[in-house]
Design a protein that fits this description.
The chain has 14 helices and 19 strands. The protein has 450 residues and is α/β, with parallel strands linked by helices. It has four domains: 151 residues, 3-Layer(aba) Sandwich (Alpha-D-Glucose-1,6-Bisphosphate, Chain A, domain 3); 97 residues, 3-Layer(aba) Sandwich (Alpha-D-Glucose-1,6-Bisphosphate, Chain A, domain 3); 92 residues, Alpha-D-Glucose-1,6-Bisphosphate, subunit A, domain 3 (Alpha-D-Glucose-1,6-Bisphosphate, Chain A, domain 3, 3-Layer(aba) Sandwich); 75 residues, Alpha-D-phosphohexomutase, C-terminal domain (TATA-Binding Protein), CATH 3.30.310. The two termini are 23 Å apart.
């Protein structure tokens, strides 16, 4: 049986199998049952929120019904970035949090992300327990009378989140013009409020959600419009968020895109120079550019890599006692301030470096020189082990031998989509493009969509 939970919760096309209201109701009930076992309480508290997708209320109401029927109280926070929901889960001393979002995916998709009482993503083992319960007869409690859970409309959520962000980085941004791309998603109200409160002149795009335009040519996966906005308006800096607000891609005043690798290099070197980088360590993933390794090593900073997924970065950071980590894709973790990746907080952290050093982002970014990198996404109909695909293992080994320590090949499946990802880095851009095309062609010929 195919697993429901991927690297970022349950994802799919909303109102189609498996992501139906019926499943959402059952997930709510089994989540409460799992929390009761792990927390030893009979009356759980759950925080639940969503992004701007039209299907959000559909799935949210079903999840809430499931939780209430099992006797849990639900704090409904409405449309709020994922990290805000994670934060409030911890602040309200709830036993768990639920986010309805498919992050950067198209509006037709949605997802169910679960958070622990600490505001961190649910451990794999807990998700596996919920999935086990979903595949078995329903033994979750069924409350009666006054024991049915209470629904609380928590209308202070957005204000509390804004106050938290401004308190983490109480910067004076009165000399800056900041351009924001909110992806027509969950940051569309919060992000402009934060930057205006800190004194910046704020320009926005992607801040008019209609339920179907989330991530549509805007946001962290499509920073081109933000680049044009910055160049046309002469803005000081720009920040693009994804649909649920846990990812950041920055654009400097020259219009150059600065992804998560740049953010980690800039923040890591600055924090180390101020003795703020715990364990003198940055945790990232195998997708990080080799240039990041060199930038951090030049600053005397250790780098540890995990499999792809900010949850794995967070777990390794906790294990090693690190306070900075993240992904090239823009999921960044500043654990001194928040338990989960937060696009707005990450933008403020970068601005904090700029304010402390007096240097603009374009200047700070010179600490990192990226190796040429090619990434090809191959739509697939099935996901057998990569090395079982005829010819792929041998061809990859030959390319790795050819490049030595001046390049690398990474082939993996997406945890949230039916894609195989072929990523190659090396000194010669044309050569690595040819290598990637060759490997992608082998995969496409054998397991590609027909």
């Amino acid at each position: 049986m195919t697993r429901l939970f991927g690297t970022d919760g349950i994802r799919g096309v909303a109102n189609e199998e498996p992501l139906t209201p019926e499943l959402a109701f059952r997930v709510g009930r089994q989540l409460v049952a799992t929390l009761q076992v792990d927390h030893g309480v009979s009356h759980a508290r759950i925080v639940i929120g969503r992004d701007t997708r039209r299907s959000g209320p559909l799935l949210e109401s079903a999840l809430i019904s499931g939780c209430l029927s099992s006797g849990a109280d639900c704090f409904s926070v409405g449309v709020l970035p994922t990290p805000g929901i994670a934060l409030l889960t911890r602040r309200l001393e709830a036993h768990g949090g639920i986010v309805l979002s498919a992050s950067h995916n198209p509006f037709e998709d949605n997802g169910i992300k679960l958070f622990s009482s600490e505001g961190t993503k649910f451990p794999d083992a807990w998700e596996a327990e919920i999935e086990e319960r979903l595949n078995a007869p329903d033994r979750a409690p069924r409350a009666r009378g006054a024991k049915i859970g209470e629904l609380i409309d928590y209308d202070r959520a957005e204000t509390e989140y804004v106050e938290f962000l401004c308190g983490c980085f109480p910067l004076d941004l009165s000399t800056l013009t900041v351009a924001l791309d909110c992806a027509h998603g969950a940051t569309y109200r919060v992000a402009p409020r934060v930057f205006r409160r800190l004194g910046a002149r704020v320009l926005t795009i992607g801040a008019r959600p209609d339920g179907v335009n989330i991530n549509a040519g805007v946001g962290a996966l499509h920073p081109e419009k933000l680049q044009k906005k910055i160049r046309a308006a002469g803005a000081s800096i720009g920040f693009a968020f994804d649909g649920d607000g846990d990812r950041l891609i920055s654009v400097d005043h020259t219009g150059e895109i600065r992804d998560g690798d740049y953010a980690l290099a800039i923040a890591g070197r600055h924090m180390a120079s101020r003795q703020r980088l715990k364990q003198n360590l940055v945790v990232t993933t195998v997708m990080a550019n080799l240039g990041l390794d060199q930038a951090l090593e030049a600053g005397g900073i250790r780098i540890v890599k995990t499999q792809v997924g900010d949850r794995y970065v967070a777990e390794e950071m906790q294990r090693l006692g690190a306070n900075l980590g993240g992904e090239q894709s823009g999921h960044l973790l500043f654990l001194d301030h928040a338990p989960a990746g937060d696009g707005i907080l990450s933008a403020l952290a970068l601005l904090g470096v700029a304010v402390e050093t007096g240097e603009p982002l374009a200047s700070l970014a010179t600490c990192l020189t990226k190796f040429p990198q090619v990434l090809i996404n191959v739509p697939v109909r099935t996901k057998p082990p990569i090395d079982s695909i005829a010819g792929v293992g041998d061809r990859r080994a030959a390319y790795e031998q050819e490049m030595g320590d001046r390049g690398r090949v990474l082939i993996r499946y997406s945890g949230t989509e039916s894609l195989a990802r072929v990523m190659i880095e090396g000194a010669d851009a044309a050569r690595i493009q040819a290598m990637a095309d060759d490997l992608a062609g082998l995969i496409r010929a054998q397991i590609g969509e027909r």
